[in-house]
Amino acid sequence: MKKTALKVLMTSVIAFPLITGGSMSAHGEIGKPNIASAETQIKVEDGMTQPIFSLNEAIAERVFVETATDSDGDGKLDRVRADIIRPKETEEGLKVPVIYEMSPYRSGIKGVPVYDVDVELNSVPKKGKRLGERGKPQANLPGYYDDYFVPRGYAVVLAESVGTGLSDGCPTTGDEHEILGTRAVIDWLNGRAKAYDANGQEIQADWSTGNVGMTGVSYNGTLPNAAAATGVEGLKTIVPIAAISSWYDYYRSNGAVIAPGGYQGEDADNMAEAILTRNNPEACSKVIKQLTEGQDRETGDYNEFWSKRDYTKDADKVKASVFVVHGLNDWNVKTKHFSDWWNALGENDVPRKMWLHQGGHSTPYSFRRDVWLPTLNKWFDYWLYDIKNDVMEEPMVDIQREDKTWHTEGNWPAAETADTKLYFSPAADRYGGGLSLLPVSNKNKQNQQFIDDASITAETLAKNPGSASQNRLVYVTPPLEKSIRISGTPEVQIRASIDRPTANLTALLVKYGVGEPEIVTRGWMDPQNLQSEERSTVLTPYREYTFTWDMQPDDYVFKKGDRVGVVILSSDYRYTLRPEAGAKITIDPERSHILLPIQGGERAFQ
């Protein structure tokens, strides 16, 4: 299958069951009282619920929850399918909390066309080749959350997002329709919405305490972010794993049209087309057209369409606690998503915890299961059952270093991190130069040039920093005398002119040491958005401007003897649009720099 294929925004679909007690919690009202007999109460040891309920005897049922939206415009409120598994004791009066996962993937994903990226910038895109069918995602993982949590007194709800499978409506890639579809299940579990069985008989969630925790990976982790940003009552905690916090940052960057890693040409409209697995999908043709128009692939600007899909701006509404999990090498849902969400939550005093690992788009169940499951157990017990354990007394952040060892931090970015400028200093060969703490003299202005060639990958252009190349500029430090750690978001600023109205701008942060160069992080910009990501500005060819853009956040240790490198190029083959070669960018290196978030600041270099 071609690498342009639309992916499933997850590594696996996961399900969690939950349980809750019925006392007044330190975190707020738990919900309805637990009226079960003493023999069916939960068992707690070492601050964690224990497996005393039978999974084999658990009750499984399916309901269709009525939402507050009519996303397909048929005059009827959408209903979303929800499958439930809960301890049999809930039929005898036991009331339990819920672990809830909403997913658009339960009925698979269709092969759909994506955009051709071999186009001139700001031109109307044509459709690319049709993609083949991808494998159907798993509905659950044997031995995972359902097996683990239902015996501990939780219920699990697995629901199907609007427009997918047996749910009504249309997929809308993260806006209010999908959010209202997600919220409806929480409302039903709290007695504020209606649900029906397949025969149309109304079903009550009278076994629910009303306490809900959401979780999931990728899209399934994004919908918890979206629901939490509405402040919905009853959602006590979320555990978003590899999750999107702003769909603009998934498909755009500083005005540039950017692909999710490995999926060149995908955009919001064909994502919706891919998950449109309901019966009679043609009912959503108008909605898909609206997505195509709203996403504005031509300019790449942030607009109202993207604002509706930006959850960070509503972080002040979040009432749920948040346990963030993200890979530092996730180039599908890039690191900006966890960083911006984490910072916004912190600014609004939301209780939070975070794991950062060295993997990509994945879940800790696959690589740290022995610690992950007990930690998750304690987390849900604390927030949904009001069990007094030490999960909120632990260090806030667990971070995995490059050697795969785990360490704890009080917060993120790391303590004593300071933005540190490294100035570009041109070399005589005009193909790059050095990086230094002190700016170089600007008396004898020495410009440097490079020419765009989108057919050359960034990985190739990062190689051989000491050799001449007309397609990039490389600036490197001397070998480091001791290790330095970056923690946060690097930012690049160049003074440059372009010989045409626009071009791509890309920056790479590279480790040069033993073996092949390693691209630590990277960032992109449409130079027409030099003033704001919300507005493109007409550029005059050959006129100098100051272009400033961020790179993807990271936490990385350069070792003693390594050299820190910055590579400036134009098109990035795997991420940007790919125009015909030839755009010439001329920069003034003496008025250009990179800002690195370094633990210890300038002292780290001295």
If you had to describe this structure to a student in words, what would you say it looks like?
The protein is α+β, with helices and mostly antiparallel strands. It has two domains: 17-109 and 140-245 and 314-409, 3-Layer(aba) Sandwich (Rossmann fold), CATH 3.40.50.1820; 417-605, Galactose-binding domain-like (Jelly Rolls, Sandwich). 15% of the residues lie in helices and 28% in strands. The protein has helices spanning 145-149, 176-189, 219-228, 248-251, 268-275, 285-295, 304-307, 336-347, 369-385, 458-461, and strands at 17-18, 24-25, 28-29, 44-45, 48-49, 59-66, 79-86, 96-103, 155-160, 195-196, 208-217, 235-241, 252-253, 256-257, 321-327, 352-357, 397-400, 406-409, 417-426, 432-436, 448-451, 473-476, 484-488, 491-498, 505-512, 518-525, 545-550, 554-558, 563-569, 584-599. The strands form six sheets. Strands 1, 6, 7, 8, 9, 10, 11, 12, 15, 16, 17 and 18 form a twelve-stranded mixed beta sheet that branches. Helix 2 (176-189) crosses helix 3 and helix 5 runs antiparallel to helix 6 (285-295).
Termini Cα gap: 50 Å
Number of individual domains: 2
Looking at CATH, the homologous superfamily of the largest domain is: Alpha/Beta hydrolase fold, catalytic domain
Instruction: Give the percentage of residues in beta strands.
Output: 25-35%
Task: Specify the number of helices.
Answer: 10
Mean pLDDT across residues? 90
CATH class of the largest domain: Alpha Beta
Based on CA atoms alone, the radius of gyration comes out at: 25 Å
CATH architecture label name of the largest domain: 3-Layer(aba) Sandwich
Catalytic activity: Hydrolyzes Xaa-Pro-|- bonds to release unblocked, N-terminal dipeptides from substrates including Ala-Pro-|-p-nitroanilide and (sequentially) Tyr-Pro-|-Phe-Pro-|-Gly-Pro-|-Ile
EC number: 3.4.14.11
Family: Belongs to the peptidase S15 family.
Organism: Cytobacillus oceanisediminis
